[in-house]
Amino acid sequence: MDTVATTGGGSGDGKLVANIMHFARALRAAGLPIGPGKVIQAVRAVEAAGIARRDDFYWTLHAVFVNRRDQRALFDQAFHVFWRNPRILERMMSLILPSVAL
Fold first, then answer.
1. For residue 43, is it within any domain?
2. What is the pLDDT of residues 47-78, one digit of tens each?
3. Enclosing domain of residue 51
4. Other beta carbons less than 10 A from residue 21's beta carbon
5. Which DSSP letter does residue 98 get?
6. Model pTM?
């Protein structure tokens, strides 16, 4: 797939921003140290890089959210599940971690 599956249009679309926030929450719930500043950086980076190519979108978010080598596999798995359908990851996380609100 060459483009990113989103519920919205372009990188300025509020739905894409909301999905980036949900993705960051999922990564945080999985153990990555992601705070509000990283989410803002991710949104700005995506606005600059665009979402026309899935690879560019992947590496843009990777550059912001991944700080250590041991975080790569988790990010990779979460990205491919979440950006296929953001609701799938939310449902999976709620089954695994029922006390975490996504």
1. yes
2. 999 888 889 999 999 999 999 999 999 999 99
3. 14-96
4. 15
5. T
6. 0.72
